[in-house]
Specification:
The protein is of the alpha/beta class and 198 residues long. It has helices spanning 6-19, 45-60, 133-153, 168-175, 183-196, and strands spanning 32-39, 65-68, 88-96, 107-111, 120-127, 162-166.
Length: 198
C-alpha cells in the first residue's frame, strides 16, 4: 500500500468499525462515548495507553463509559452490552505539531463542529511531547477529555468551535488526581448525555 493512501484507508476502516458498534453500555446502563483514535502523529503506544486509562477513569467518575475503537489499551468490559448504542462517537485525528511553533508548548485540541451536528464528530489534536512520557500522556488525556466534554455537553452540534491547550500545568493537575472538569461542567456533561439517550 502506498503511503499516500494510508490516511484514507485508516479513515475508512475506522468509520466502518465505528458504524458497526451496536452495543455498548456500562454496568448501570449509563451512557457510553465511543472514541476512535487516528494516530497520524505516531504517538508511542504506552503514552496512548496511559492517556486512555486516565480519560476512562475521569469519565467513569461521572458514570460514563468510554469505549476505544482502535484501542490503545484493552479495558475490562464487564456485563452484557448488547442492548444499547453509544450516545456519541468521536474520531480523534492526532497529528504532530510543528516544533517551530513556540506560541505554547504541549498538546492542542481543535473541535470545529459541523452545522448539522450529529452523533459522529471529528476533532483534531496537534501533539507535541513534553518533559517526559507521563507528562505528555496526561497533557494528551486532558485535551481529549475536554474535547469529549464539549461534545457531550452539546450533542446537537450547536457548540462553537473550540481550541483546547494541554501543557505542563494541566498535566500536573491530572497527576495530582484532579478532574479535568469543574463541578458545573461535570453536571453539564451528564445532563447532555442523558438528553442524548432519549
Amino acid at each position: 500500500m502506498k503511503v499516500m493512501h494510508r490516511p484514507l484507508t485508516m479513515w475508512l476502516l475506522a468509520t466502518v468499525a465505528s458504524a458497526s458498534v451496536q452495543a455498548v453500555s456500562n454496568d448501570a446502563g449509563g451512557p457510553v462515548i465511543v472514541v476512535v483514535l487516528h494516530n497520524y502523529a505516531e504517538i508511542a503506544r504506552r503514552i496512548l495507553e496511559h492517556a486512555a486509562l486516565e480519560i476512562t477513569r475521569d469519565y467513569k467518575e461521572l458514570g460514563i463509559d468510554v469505549r476505544w475503537m482502535t484501542p490503545p489499551v484493552e479495558l475490562d468490559r464487564p456485563g452484557d452490552s448488547a442492548n444499547e448504542t453509544p450516545v456519541a462517537t468521536l474520531h480523534v485525528r492526532m497529528f504532530e505539531r510543528d516544533i517551530r511553533d513556540r506560541v505554547s508548548n504541549g498538546v492542542i485540541g481543535i473541535d470545529a463542529p459541523e452545522p448539522a451536528g450529529g452523533l459522529v464528530t471529528v476533532a483534531h489534536v496537534l501533539y507535541q511531547p513534553l518533559d517526559d512520557e507521563s507528562t505528555s500522556a496526561f497533557a494528551l488525556a486532558y485535551v481529549i477529555a475536554r474535547l469529549m466534554a464539549n461534545i457531550a455537553m452539546t450533542l446537537d452540534g450547536s457548540r462553537p468551535s473550540t481550541i483546547i491547550r494541554g501543557g505542563p500545568t494541566e498535566a500536573h493537575r491530572l497527576q495530582r488526581g484532579e478532574s479535568p472538569f469543574t463541578s458545573e461542567e461535570a453536571d453539564r456533561i451528564q445532563a447532555g448525555l442523558r438528553a442524548g439517550r432519549r
